[in-house]
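Possible regression after last week's pipeline update?

I re-ran a chain I had predicted before the update to compare outputs. Posting the input and the new output here so someone can diff against the archived version. Not blocking, just want to make sure nothing changed silently.
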Amino acid sequence: MNIAIVGSGLYSFTTASQFAAVGNQVYLFSNTNELEDTSLDSDFQDDINKHPISNFQNEPGLISLFRKQVVQGRIKQELPPTNCKVDFVLLTDADPSSTINEFYSLFKKVTDENSSFIIFSPSRIGETKAVQELIYEKKFNSKVVCVPLLIREGRALEDLSRPDNIIIGCDKHEILPRVKALFYPFNRVKDTVRVVASMEAEFASFAGNAMLATRLSFMNEMASLAEQIDVDVDVIRECIGSDPRIGRDYLYPGCGYGGEALEDNLSAVAKQLKTRNGYLGLLGTVAKINERQKDLLFRKIWKFYKGDLSGRSIAIWGASFKPGSASLIGAPAIVLIDSLIAHQVKVVIYDPMAKKYLEKKYGRNKLIKIVEQRDEALSNCDVLAICTEWKEFWSPDFNLVKENLTDKSIFDGRNLYSVKLVNSFGLKYFAIGRGEKL
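New output (post-update):
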């Protein structure tokens, strides 16, 4: 099939690479002209740092797969020729209506009654119908479907090639066979396709994100209560997680969730709830809990030093909003860092992937030092704070941690360690709902 993909973000490169890898001809272009100006040739590595895909150099397997498809000619970084009819137009990272308006003349030439527009990750309920109305208004014959497929940083290729489920939001069932055929290569082992109305698919996407956020905020509330009554919240998590009605996923308390996709989706849901109901209800509480949770490590450190942070130096392990990602969007670490430097605290940060973005954000701040190695961050610091659960933090040399930290204390926002183990090395351990009390 011939596929046109508009965008220059993670969804764009992931879908382009995977659909090309299974034999489709992909035309990848951007409404910002980034891709057309920096097309890659066979000397891929010479051009990598100038290309938008360089933002995803740490995404497992993505660049190598993308490169292979470019070299083999199955990904062309250009507009589809006007004499080519495309089967699908994938709208991945841009606003769908704006993209259609911008490329109206092209789309009218390369689409026909057999073509379909697919919206990935719709930003609002009713967007698919709005785009369909826009296409009819412009006298296209194409149909519009939405596929709110979950593609996560750190496992993007896996999410598309082996999806847990594929929800197709489709109001015109005559186009379903072609849409299902597009996803057939990723749906062969077990049938994961569910077909619903477009608004139901959009709503399901929002409701799923809202449920995840609610579970996380609920566990953070339980962690706060557990801390007050001297109960280990990790024991509580194991007990309720073994209940089949509840399950174990997303029951880990921490210093708050982040990430552009989740926060944007929840913001969109909240906006619609407020428009329709006049109030946010449960989601308003969920959002407030999360924002409060992002400030928790700073409040713990503040209490530890009885409000006197002058002259302190804090080591931070992990800055990205989750392991496997370099993104700082919505990351709890940023709240901690900003609060510390506002009190003139020196901060030494290590993150295995986010160094470039940390330097861009804090590079000129004399209170901030960004280092290359995990243990390098400990040198001459008073305490350690952990904000992201990177695997290289799971089994550190606790003797080395103790030797380097003046005040022999760890503030763990991700509950990585056994309380007894850390204490056995002569370190104080302040975690979320467990460890030392303040």
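Follow-up from reviewer: compared with the archived run. The two ends are 62 Å apart (CA to CA). Marking as no regression found.
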